[in-house]
Amino acid sequence: MADLAASPDKRQGSHAPKHFAIVLIVGLILLGACMLASLAFGSRAMGLKEVMDGLLRPEADSYGASVVQQRIGRTIFSLLAGGALGVSGSLMQAVTRNPIADPSILGVNTGAALFVVGGIAFLNISSAHEYIGLACAGAAITALFVFGVGSLGRGGATPIKLVLAGAAISAALSSLVNAIMIPRSNVMDQFRFWQVGSVGAANWSDIAVFSPFLIAGLLIAFAAAPALNALALGDEAATGLGVRTGVLRLVASVAAILLCGTVTALAGPIGFVGLLATHLVRLIIGPDQRYLIPMSALAGAVVLTVSDVIGRLIGSPGELEVGIVTAFVGAPILILLAMRSKVRSL
Questions:
Q1: How far apart are alpha carbons 243 and 232 in whole angstroms?
Q2: Rounded to an integer, what distance in angstroms lies between the CA atom of residue 109 and that of residue 227?
Q3: How far, in whole angstroms, is CA 243 from its chain's centroid?
Q4: CB-neighbour burial class of residue 182 (10 A; exposed 0-12, middle 13-18, buried 19+)
Q5: Span 207-249, pLDDT tens digits
Q6: Residue 106: what are its φ and ψ, rounded to 5°?
Q7: Do 251 and 217 form a contact (C-beta atoms < 8 A)?
Q8: Cα torsion at 200, 206, 211, 212 (round to 10°)?
Q9: Quick check: 191 and 256 in contact, CB under 8 A?
Q10: Could you tell me which residues come within 8 angstroms of residue 40 by beta carbon, excluding any fewer than 6 positions away?
């Protein structure tokens, strides 16, 4: 990967975007606030003192300490999953040069869902690794198919054509999911809660399974970031700068699919997080992928964790799944972005 990034880096220099340090500090403060809110709110709200006691004295024999310890795993998984979705959205937008690319919009989540429900129905899968393997395979095949369909005709893979191809293929795959699931009540019971998208059932076992895939995806994304800056100039300009565009797109796509596929396998298809996080960060610090990717991870963690907290507050004493909250927030923002930007290429 080093040879892909060498030439662009020399041309770009190494200066951080203006006010990057301030943005980073504010982002970390927001992340800390989200963590405290996630630990404090639920079926039983707790004060700051109870939360801190639960964190500092986990061995204490109290209801508050027990609740905090149960919520820690959910909070950490929410942060990690949000960060992964943020980076995945950033990579997809960079690779396709499509400002509204996102796993949910391009149908990647639906492809992962189809493979998972097929595995439940026909292969009797039950382990997290089986879910992850099938979800990543479904996400990869769907991404290739959407890009292939969106590339047909004059002009190649334009933003509008990719979105339309993703919407059409997602609708078709959703029909297949229902066709497999509806006649099988046992599959429906197992699949319907996963399909909504939720981090409520996350535990330390999920985090342990998820972490290696997250680390691998992030390392690939960070290594590819300088070359992705050159790709934004167009394929011809990137090739002139020494970037192997085909290899770069393949490697970056693998990282994006690995990140979103793993999250989808464990938490269900949660949409719009990558879109929201990446656009928010790009508006503040600009398009430099060397800073956009890590800040998208931070913003994605904040977006998903805040959405989870909102779902708990709205649905109290139960909860509203986070996938529903992100859809309610993300859909109007997608419409506004499409109207304001006229879906221009990056």
A1: 12
A2: 26
A3: 26
A4: exposed
A5: 998 999 999 999 999 999 999 999 888 878 888 888 888 888 8
A6: -85, 5
A7: no
A8: -150
A9: no
A10: 46, 47, 48, 50, 51
